Amino acid sequence: MAGPSVIEGYLTELRYSLANLPQADEIVDEAADHLFTSAAAAIAGGVEPTVAEAQVVARFGSASLVARVFAEEFKRGSAVSTSSTRRAGVAAMVSVVLLVVGQAGNHLTSRGLVHAAFLALVTAGFPALGVGLWGLRRRHGGLGTAGRIAFWWFVLSPVLAAPFLYAAPLVLAGEWLLIMSLLGIAMLRARVLPAPAVALFTMSPGLALVVILGMSAAHLDAGPWFLTLLAPVALGFVWLGWAMWQEPALDNIEKTANAGPLRVA
């Protein structure tokens, strides 16, 4: 009795490699249809059946490689650029400007309308920052449990920091740095937005937090250095916001395709 063909053996290995994916059967069925159709075309052209099957399998790629590709795509989930994520990218960039300028002005002024205006900038920066973080999570298909924890932690962070009274701003900053690190690690794994920007956004918060805690333990005032320490984090966040804003929105493709020749880009 003849053993399994080259393609059948490959499909068995592919099914085993895809065992952890819920759509494994559909992927194997599509692969089988493609491989057998390609092999049949080669055989019709005069290639020996075994050679034809070996050739199409070699062109398709090893089972382990194909499985890794599909697993990576599945992990990304609904990671697509939309009009909402593009607007969130703008919010991310604007939030950094509002927080930096507002906080700098808050330190330089002490009273009056100018001081109130700088405080208003800081206040406006908080929701903009939240929208930016929401957009990063949305752009990556949710980022699973890590994304949910990071987003809701950010929402609750002022409440959690409030009991620390005068130290609340420092505690809040520490919370945000940890949130950004958690979100960034999940983003690095997803590999959707530019890796250098994600790495800068992810690694800098931990370093800044260590420096701030070290200065506090040494009874040094970290306040004057606060913005400097957060500069790499801010740069990474702006970079990510820019990347999201520059991406084409997939939910506008249909509108663009149906637009007339007089449409202005």
Task: Show the helix and strand layout.
Blueprint: H1 6-17, H2 24-44, H3 49-60, H4 63-76, H5 83-108, H6 112-139, H7 144-161, H8 168-190, H9 195-217, H10 226-246, H11 253-257
Helix pairs in contact: 1-2, 1-4, 2-3, 5-6, 5-10, 6-7, 7-8, 8-9, 9-10
Shape: elongated
Provide the helix percentage: over 70%
- Secondary-structure-based class equals mainly alpha
* Number of separate strands: 0
Please indicate the count of domains. 2
Low-confidence regions: 253-265
Note the total helix count.
11
Residue-averaged pLDDT, rounded? Answer: 81
What is the element string, with H for helices and E for strands?
A: HHHHHHHHHHH
**Beta-strand share of residues:** under 5%
Major β-sheet, in short? none
Q: What is the distance, rounded to the nearest whole angstrom, between the alpha carbons of the first and last residues?
A: 65 Å
Radius of gyration, in Å, reads 26 Å
Question: Would you kindly provide a written description of the structure presented here, covering whatever features stand out?
Answer:
The protein is mainly alpha-helical. 77% of the residues lie in helices and 0% in strands. The chain is built from eleven helices and no strands. Helix 1 packs antiparallel against helix 2, helix 1 (6-17) runs parallel beside helix 4 and helix 6 runs antiparallel to helix 7.
Q: Nutshell version of this structure?
A:
The protein has 265 residues and is mainly alpha-helical. It is built from eleven helices and no strands.
